Amino acid sequence: MTTTKKETRGLVNLAGWMFCLWGILVTIWGFLRLLNISKPDSEFVMPADWMRFSVFEVTYGMVCVGVGYLLFMYAKKKLNDKQ
Predict the structure, then answer these.
(1) How far apart are CA 1 and CA 54, in angstroms?
(2) What own/partner pairs with CB < 8 Å and gap ≥ 24 does 9-15 have?
(3) C-alpha of 8 from chain center
(4) d(CA 60, CA 78)
(5) Residues 6+ apart with CB under 8 A from 1
(6) Contact 22, 60 (CB under 8 A)
(7) 78 vs 10: CA distance, rounded Å
(8) Please, are residues 65 and 24 in contact by the beta-carbon 8 Å criterion?
(9) CA–CA dist 15, 26 (Å, integer)
(10) Percent of the chain predicted with pLDDT > 70
(11) I need a labelling partner for 35 at 20 to 30 A (CA). Which of 47, 50, 69, 82 fits?
């Protein structure tokens, strides 16, 4: 394996970790907002808008976790040592 593949695999794994950690944080924050534990910053936000935004946050966080997982699988299958 060349050093270029090794370095690329490390960068792909780093990006995977960043996506997973960010996705987990956003998903938790979205659930806190969805369960009304975290209140809106403004008193002019309607509850329906607040719920819609919190569902968007949960969805966005889960998509980020999924992208991180796909990056891990790509690094494992395409950038492995035995090629």
Answers:
(1) 45
(2) 9/75, 9/79, 9/80, 12/71, 12/74, 12/75, 12/79, 13/71, 13/72, 13/75, 15/68, 15/71
(3) 20
(4) 26
(5) 81, 83
(6) no
(7) 13
(8) yes
(9) 16
(10) 93
(11) 69
Give the integer Cα–Cα distance in Å for 17 and 81. 20
All structural domains of the chain with their residue ranges: 9-78
The model carries a pTM of: 0.84
The string of pLDDT tens digits covering residues 15-41 is 999 999 999 999 999 999 889 887 777
Determine which helix (DSSP H) or strand (DSSP E) holds 4, and give its type and residue range.
helix 3-34
pLDDT in the model for residue 8: 87
Tokens 């950690």, residue located: 21
State the Cα–Cα distance between residues 27 and 47, nearest whole angstrom. Answer: 19
